[in-house]
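Priority: medium. Attachment 1 of 2:
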């Protein structure tokens, strides 16, 4: 090990910073957040440091460096732009056996400041011993995305209850089981849901119960349209922690690939000959069984779970069963497909509203509905319409939408095989047939679709009147 890592308690201890420019200011602010007593000095100081000095939060010497400044210091930081001066400060500090850091100069330093991920009281420090600071920074960014911001609150809670937990669970194995429950289960979930009182109550109840309760629960996660880059950080974290993943067929393999290696992945799509309600009952039963067995279940759905995803019904069921749950939104197909086709869903001149419409159950829909859908200056997004494009365009035209209204059909939105077919409503049915549009595909109708050929940037863009080459 090239460097020995330590975490220093700087509360009330003097740290001398030579330099008062922007780099020094950054160091000083982080020293202040650790409670250090900062003495800084340089002929010129940044407005920020002058302000801190006026507020009495640091001592600022506006003068050239003198060795006497090092008196009474525990640590020294040299942050001047002048290497000769930095080197002199480092030498004088070392003679006095003071640890010194010269910013961005590992050769002159006897200690280095790591990159940190701050979830106080939990802190992760990363160092490459000066060999590759860029790599250390990248690692920090990666780790930063792995841990939720409520982790610090959880660490603090665990710290506060440590003696009580030790007393209530004297046996080591049972204590470990309790900590697993505390860190992975409903207490952590309650903190993520910003319900600190509920978290404390759960902890208290569990502490006084003879057995540690189940840590099972369900996270309803929107997986987005397919490109794994469109997952949220919360979705990624849930996938990292899952024991069981119940996923729809619409969820892409690339997204499933990101989940914890040893999580069980179960496809819960509709079985042949099964009706939708039976599928839904089967899914409910799977969620219930695994959550009650103490598993962390991720219910993973394409797009967003609350947009044509029956997510509401699943939560109603979980609530009835008293199973804890969280919801992570996903990017719904209309938003993703529009973005990946270069179609702004609203536009100051062309569309003041957007409607997300299911192409199912429209046969028996009231005629009024079609009149409303056929109005101008709005964008329509039809989900589940791949097999009914002819019907949809005929209804819109019959109810007054012009045959010249631009449309775009986005097939396999955000995925490697994305195709965007665009043209005028009057030619939609014919074009969809010729180009053999397949599910999953979304139909957008409205003036904004005329922008697709100009703003497209991803995958294949096909004008509706283009001859099909077989
Ligand atoms: N909950 C999902 C929608 C489920 S309904 C969401 O929020 O996106 C399924 C329909 O969504 C499909 O028939 C199709 O119309 C649309 N869809 C989902 N993913 C798509 C994709 N990658 N490209 C195009 N359409 C998609």
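Attachment 2 of 2:
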């Amino acid at each position: 090990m090239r460097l020995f890592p330590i975490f220093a308690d700087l509360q009330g201890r003097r740290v001398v910073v030579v330099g008062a420019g922007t780099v020094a200011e950054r160091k000083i602010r982080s020293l202040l957040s650790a409670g250090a007593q900062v003495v800084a000095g340089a002929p010129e100081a940044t407005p920020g440091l002058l302000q801190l000095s006026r507020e009495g939060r640091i001592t600022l010497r506006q003068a050239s460096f003198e060795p006497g400044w090092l008196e009474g210091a525990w640590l020294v930081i040299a942050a001047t732009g002048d290497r000769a001066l930095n080197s002199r400060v480092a030498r004088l500090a070392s003679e006095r056996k003071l640890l010194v850091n010269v910013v961005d100069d590992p050769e002159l330093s006897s200690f280095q400041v790591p990159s940190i991920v701050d979830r106080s009281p939990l802190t992760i420090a990363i160092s490459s011993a000066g060999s590759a600071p860029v790599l250390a920074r990248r690692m920090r960014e990666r780790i930063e995305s792995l841990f939720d911001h409520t982790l610090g609150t959880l660490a603090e809670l665990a710290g506060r209850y440590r003696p009580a937990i030790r007393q209530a669970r004297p046996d080591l194995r049972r204590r470990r089981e309790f900590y697993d429950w505390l860190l992975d289960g409903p207490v952590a979930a309650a903190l993520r849901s910003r319900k600190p009182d509920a978290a404390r109550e759960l902890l208290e109840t569990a502490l006084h119960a003879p057995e540690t309760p189940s840590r099972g629960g369900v996270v309803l996660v929107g997986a987005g349209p397919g490109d794994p880059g469109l997952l949220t950080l919360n979705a990624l974290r849930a996938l990292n922690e899952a024991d069981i993943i119940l996923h729809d067929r619409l969820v892409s393999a690339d997204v499933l690939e990101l989940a914890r290696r040893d999580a069980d992945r179960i496809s819960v799509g509709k079985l042949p000959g099964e009706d939708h309600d039976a599928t839904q009952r089967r899914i409910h039963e799977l969620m219930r069984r695994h959550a009650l067995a103490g598993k962390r279940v991720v219910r993973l759905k394409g797009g967003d779970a609350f947009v044509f995803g029956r997510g509401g019904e699943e939560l109603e069921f979980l609530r009835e069963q008293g199973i804890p749950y969280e919801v992570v939104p996903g990017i719904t197909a209309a938003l993703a497909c529009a973005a990946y086709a270069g179609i702004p869903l609203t536009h100051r001149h062309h569309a003041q509203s957007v409607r997300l419409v299911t192409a199912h159950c429209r046969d028996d829909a009231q005629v009024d509905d079609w009149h409303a859908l056929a109005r101008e200056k709005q964008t329509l997004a039809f989900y589940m319409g791949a097999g009914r494009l002819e019907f949809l365009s005929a209804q819109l035209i019959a109810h007054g939408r012009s045959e010249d209204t631009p449309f775009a059909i986005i097939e396999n939105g955000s995925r490697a095989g994305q195709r965007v077919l665009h043209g005028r409503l009057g030619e939609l049915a014919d074009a969809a047939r010729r180009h053999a549009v397949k599910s999953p595909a979304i139909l957008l109708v409205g003036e904004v679709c005329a922008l697709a050929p100009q703003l497209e940037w991803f995958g294949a863009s096909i004008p509706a009147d283009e001859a099909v080459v077989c």
